[in-house]
Design goal:
The complex is a heterodimer of chains A (about 325) and B (about 350).
Chain A: H1 3-7, H2 19-25, H3 27-57, H4 73-79, H5 82-113, H6 120-132, H7 135-145, H8 152-159, H9 173-201, H10 205-213, H11 218-246, H12 250-255, H13 267-275, H14 281-289, H15 291-307
Helix pairs in contact in A: 3-14, 5-9, 5-11, 6-9, 9-11, 11-15, 13-14
Chain B: E1 4-13, E2 16-26, E3 31-35, H1 42-50, E4 57-62, E5 65-66, E6 77-80, H2 92-102, H3 107-121, H4 136-149, E7 154-158, H5 166-183, E8 186-191, H6 194-200, E9 203-208, E10 211-216, H7 218-223, H8 228-233, E11 240-247, E12 250-252, E13 258-259, E14 269-275, E15 280-296, E16 301-307, E17 310-316, E18 327-332, E19 338-341
Parallel strand pairs in B: 3-8, 3-9, 6-7, 7-8
Antiparallel strand pairs in B: 1-2, 1-4, 4-5, 9-10, 11-12, 11-14, 12-13, 14-19, 15-16, 15-18, 16-17
Helix pairs in contact in B: 2-3, 2-4, 3-4
Classes of the chains: A mainly alpha (about 325), B alpha+beta (about 350).
Chain lengths: ~325, ~350
């Protein structure tokens, strides 16, 4: 090799680090910088409104007038208010019945879709439709379906000669309650079905084959394999479903506005009714805050009762 | 315990033919290994035996009864799956007792049967663990335990050792064989590993592309492979195959090297000349091989060399001190040379 070529051999040289670069290498600074956007968003859109809501619940604020601290007065009034009690009853009833309906039908649908069907992926996409339609559009559609005069269901029954008069869907208390639950179930099924379908697909087919050889019937395979293995995901989906159903607002407000005679108020619609159209911001906030214990209870229940399974955990848990 | 008779069994998935008419007669208590490369149809055949796949054509009978349309649970068979298929939400005890529970057996019966199987397999301590908390070998044993408690007429194993590490595989191999000797239940075992097949089987069925290439006792397959496929598949390290021509009483390989012929060889023709690495010996008057790679394993020395233009692998019990570029003189044992027709691949 010639001397000239040797001179041109490239050697890596250490570069001095700039101050900015050093700053970014400093861990505490880096941690703070990385967390800032998330913390900022959480604070502005979650902590602040929640804190403000809780604060308002202890004041007598109305629209146009900032309130004074009144302690538990709003809550004392609320506990004596039959409309609030009615809303509590209907919120629990609505959530309970709709959850049972959604999970019964959703699980059934998921099991059907888990089989080999023609046009499987297209069917799955169609199933999702009710869920991707905006809730208000669903509500308006159901409002027409339940319309006392133009209801398509009434029309079908009358055309078939099964009835002579229109069905009263939303103008008396109990039919209105059941109608709303029906609409909620229709809207909630896809979420449950698709989530559970995802859960079903994680179950290894060889387990079913092993069970087949072990002499199981179809029901036994569901009872001893599908259902227990689906429980963890069922618990999570159910927690979400309960929270979303309990805090539902759009469907009820768009179809009945809490009526007739406050019989279909959920806590969320009642809080809105009192707070915004009614102007009693403090009272509305107190009603909204009163949902928190129910939600905490529902979450804890499904988390502890359903989600934790020993068999899912590793070797350390003996 | 029962005989298993597979007669001209065919399987199509749509228009794809997986099995083209396979026949195997399995005697009562025999340990049969179906072996072949992946995609050869061996697992499909096993699943058809288990009733997990439909039979497109032909008959399968177990214990003299045709089972083509008998559902899996009524075939009196038990299967060990490749991934073990243990129920993850059940303890070892519940896994093993599941079939009895489904059949409505009383608790005491389940206890005693599971205990019996657990004792055979050394699972006594683990009955209350979940599959997650077990090692690979323990899971394997539980899967076998689940099969044993069924007390079936036929055991089916679908590549049961392929998820284990090499050391455990050797151990479980002998455990399965021991279990078979103890229970004497007819067993059909699928693997792609020819060593497993050689060490465990009474009868090896070598499959390729949905056909049986050869069926026979392990050493029969080793000593007299029926065709090139079996010759290349059975034996480790694999047989050397040299392409050439027989002329004038000798085999002429690449580079014009003349190789000795076995007694009774054809007088002329294009052939493949097969010699197993372990059937070469050092011979001062032998063929001249230029050493390429030397692999000492302690118990033997494997040497890759070039003889003429042909690659030749030799496995010698002697410790040979040689290295790349040196010359080694070797000669094949004439009685252990295999000749195959070049056109058909069949043994001559």
């Amino acid at each position: 090799m010639s001397a000239v070529a040797e001179d041109k051999v490239w050697v890596r040289q250490a570069k001095a680090q700039s101050a900015l670069s050093k700053l970014f290498d400093w861990k505490p600074f880096l941690v703070a910088m990385c967390m800032l956007p998330a913390l900022g968003l959480l604070f502005v859109f979650l902590t602040y409104p929640l804190g403000l809501g809780i604060w308002l619940a202890f004041t007598d604020t109305t629209i146009g007038r900032s309130g004074r601290w009144v302690g538990l007065e709003n809550f004392e009034y609320m506990l004596e208010d039959p409309i609030w009690w009615n809303a509590v009853f209907f919120s629990v009833f609505y959530t309970g019945v709709a959850t049972i309906g959604k999970f019964g039908l959703g699980l059934w649908l998921a099991l059907l879709l888990n089989n080999h069907l023609p046009f499987k992926s297209m069917l799955r996409a169609i199933i999702l439709l009710p869920w991707i339609v905006p809730t208000v559009l669903t509500a308006i559609a159901f409002w027409w379906i339940y319309n006392p005069q133009f209801s398509i269901i009434s029309w079908i029954f009358i055309e078939l000669g099964l009835r002579t008069t229109n069905i009263d869907f939303i103008n008396t208390a109990w039919p209105a309650r059941w109608s709303l639950i029906g609409a909620n179930i229709w809207r909630g099924i896809p979420f449950v079905a698709i989530s559970l379908l995802a859960g079903l697909q994680t179950i290894s087919p060889s387990l079913y084959e092993a069970a087949l050889l072990d002499g199981s019937t179809g029901w036994q395979r569901f009872r001893y394999i599908t259902f227990p293995m689906l429980l963890p995901i069922l618990a999570i989906v159910m927690t979400f479903s309960i929270i979303f159903t309990f805090t539902d607002f759009q469907l009820v407000y768009a179809i009945t506005r809490g009526g007739p005679v406050n019989s279909t108020h959920l806590l969320a619609t009642l809080a809105f009714q009192r707070g915004i159209p009614g102007g009693q911001l403090g009272e509305g906030a107190a009603i909204a805050v009163s949902m928190i214990p129910f939600l905490v209870f529902a979450t804890l229940f499904s988390y502890f009762a359903l989600a934790r399974r020993k068999w899912q955990q590793g070797e350390s848990n003996d | 315990m029962a005989t298993v008779d597979i007669r001209d069994v065919r399987k199509n998935f749509g228009t794809t033919k997986i099995l083209h008419g396979v026949s195997v007669a399995i005697e009562d208590g025999q340990f049969v290994v179906l072996v072949g490369p992946s995609g050869c149809g061996k697992s499909t055949l096993l699943r058809m035996l288990a009733g997990l796949e439909n039979i497109t054509g032909g008959d399968i009978s177990i214990g003299g009864r045709v089972v083509n349309n008998v559902p899996p649970k009524d075939r009196d068979i038990a299967m060990v799956f490749q991934n073990y298929a243990l129920y993850p939400h059940m303890t070892v005890f519940q896994n093993m007792a599941f079939s009895m529970k489904l059949a409505g057996a009383p608790r005491e019966h389940m206890e005693s049967e599971v205990q019996k199987a657990a004792k055979i397999l050394g699972l006594g301590e683990l009955l209350h663990r979940f599959p997650r908390q077990l090692s690979g070998g323990q899971r394997q044993r539980v899967a076998m335990g689940r099969a044993i408690v069924r007390n079936p007429q036929v055991f089916l194993f679908d590549e049961p050792l392929s998820n284990l590490d090499a050391k455990l595989r050797v151990q479980m191999r002998s455990e399965i064989k021991e279990l078979h000797q103890r229970l004497k239940v007819t067993t059909v075992y699928v693997t792609h590993d020819q060593i497993e097949a050689m060490t465990m089987a009474d009868l090896i069925v070598v499959m390729n592309h949905g056909r049986i290439e050869q069926a026979g006792a392990p050493l029969e397959l080793y000593d007299r492979p029926a065709n090139l496929f079996v010759a290349g598949f059975i034996g480790s390290p694999a047989m050397n195959m040299i392409d050439g021509r027989i002329e004038g009483g000798a085999f002429h390989g690449p580079g014009g090297v003349a190789w000795p012929l076995p007694p009774g060889a054809p007088a002329s023709g294009d052939v493949i000349y097969g010699i197993r690495p372990e059937h070469l010996r050092l011979d001062p008057d032998g063929l001249e091989g230029v050493v390429n790679v030397v692999e000492p394993t302690g118990s033997e020395t494997q040497v890759v060399m070039h003889v003429g233009g042909a690659h030749l692998l030799g496995a010698f019990r002697e410790r040979i001190l040689t290295r790349h570029g040196e010359v080694l003189r070797v000669s094949p044992d004439p009685a252990l040379i295999h000749l195959f027709d070049k056109a058909t691949g069949q043994r001559l």
